[in-house]
Amino acid sequence: xxxxxxxxxxxxxxxxxxxxxxxxxxxxxxxxxxxxxxxxxxxxxxxxxxxxxxxxxxxxxxxxxxxxxxxxxxxxxxxxxxxxxxxxxxxxxxxxxxxxxxxxxxxxxxxxxxxxxxxxxxxxxxxxxxxxxxxxxxxxxxxxxxxxxxxxxxxxxxxxxxxxxxxxxxxxxxxxxxxxxxxxxxxxxxxxxxxxxxxxxxxxxxxxxxxxxxxxxxxxxxxxxxxxxxxxxxxxxxxxxxxxxxxxxxxxxxxxxxxxxxxxxxxxxxxxxxxxxxxxxxxxxxxxxx
Length: 290
Ligand code: PLP
Prior knowledge:
By secondary structure, the protein is α+β, with helices and mostly antiparallel strands.
């Protein structure tokens, strides 16, 4: 038996969320005609849960609403989605680390009734990635760094269900003998990982690229930057280049469930892992209760 939990978030014909219903994760729940399945036409969030506490929950809900707006989906009701996440988190309270995925999709084509659900289960063991680090390759995303402004219909920076490209990039990383990817814009700026935000340390400053480059504003990065002074560090958001990554003192890909994974090589070139700061970051991220 899997330790997985599912709730369905019901909607009315006007697109408003009406309630949360527990459901069996081992039974089929989604129509084959749902645009979530046929076109990846929906948005999602993945929220880490530490001993029953959904982490950075307000930021995730805000980003869920932002993605929904970018896709002209109805605004996700904070009360109903909050009930869904808290119901799932309660059932995961026995685990130190778990995660919940919430999904809002356009629903069956022709009906104006969105589909919504939340699914939660125990997190994988990421101790190795957090301590030993990960190997990454830089991959050209093929989009300019001003794509969000020039071509908003490409939905750069929205958390949509269309993650096939992100998965393909990860497979390319595996083919090259690496674990993960840092995307680069066609005009040479570092962007993000397929499921994570890039953070570097330059001396006593943490730096991450700006969301205006058409990347997802990361909730983990924001929490880390707010805590930076605990570690005697300042923080800045500014464009970064591959040369800037090569000369950085340390670098991480940070995200909600894996937390802070230090980079131990970039395109096959070894780089130093800051073990002490990685441990401090991961300790802080695991203990978050807001
Ligand atoms: N960038 C992308 C493309 C992502 O998919 C994710 C998370 O899945 C992130 C960044 C990191 O966001 P967060 O820290 O909120 O998990």
